[in-house]
Specification:
Elements (H helix, E strand, L loop, with lengths): L4 H6 L12 H17 L14 H9 L7 H13 L12 H16 L4 H13 L3 H15 L4 H13 L3 H15 L5 H13 L5 H18 L1
Helix pairs in contact: 2-3, 4-5, 5-6, 6-7, 7-8, 8-9, 8-10, 9-10
């Protein structure tokens, strides 16, 4: 506990507020999570069916004052996914299924337009075998939330290709290219994206998005 005291004492605000959180608090949360991910316990102590590991507890505490900061939601979800690589069955967080719940909380309540969370939700839905739900999400994103989001458009085409619907993928991309001609520069971006899909670069845009999230997190933790 003594090792955690310096982190606890640095906080200025531990409650939710729509006003921006101070940079010192953001950096302290990032560093505190760094510490806990290394030194905290991942396996729940079996004393109660409601027991939680220390990392889950800290993430949940963090998301009270940091609810409007996407990097903490995404970090929580990515940590939950990482647990699926471990064999211990006593983990509280259960891989992609738990990560999907985290992302859905983020989008439903605090950051409904968060592009990174929307794309991660689509990827997790597909991983869970919920392909139709993934398609509905992408339809909603492209029709209402973020019509010009190239990453979602290319992800949708790649999704169709991964599941054997080549004709549907080509029809959708051609339709988006036609629609894109009405928007300055969009058609060119979509065409470049389509060339990448035809070249078989599946998931490249999501990889670039993950790298961007890590870069943002490093700046917060600076």
């Amino acid at each position: 506990m003594k090792a955690r005291e310096p982190f606890e004492k640095r906080f200025k605000r531990l409650y939710f507020h729509v006003k921006p959180l101070g940079q010192n608090d953001l950096q302290n949360w990032s560093r505190y999570l760094d510490y806990e991910l290394i030194h905290g316990n991942v396996v729940a102590v079996i004393v109660s069916p409601h027991a939680q590991d220390s990392i889950t507890v800290l993430f949940e505490r963090c998301l009270i004052p940091c609810a409007l900061y996407e990097e903490f939601w995404l970090r929580y979800a990515e940590w939950a996914v990482s647990l699926s690589l471990l064999s211990d069955t006593q983990h509280i967080a259960r891989g992609a299924a738990d990560a999907l719940k985290i992302v859905q909380r983020c989008l439903a309540t605090f950051l409904p337009q968060c592009v990174s969370a929307l794309l991660l939700q689509a990827a997790l839905l597909e991983e869970q075998g919920q392909v139709e739900a993934c398609e509905r999400l992408l339809e909603d994103v492209l029709a209402k939330r973020c019509p010009q989001l190239l990453e979602a458009a290319v992800f949708y085409v790649e999704l169709l290709l991964r599941h054997g619907d080549r004709d549907g993928a080509e029809e959708r991309m051609e339709g988006m290219l036609t629609e894109g001609r009405r928007e300055s520069g969009l058609s060119h971006r979509l065409w470049n994206g389509w060339k990448r899909v035809r070249g078989g670069v599946c998931g490249q845009l999501l990889l670039e998005g993950a790298e961007g999230r890590r870069s943002r997190a490093q700046r917060v933790g600076g």
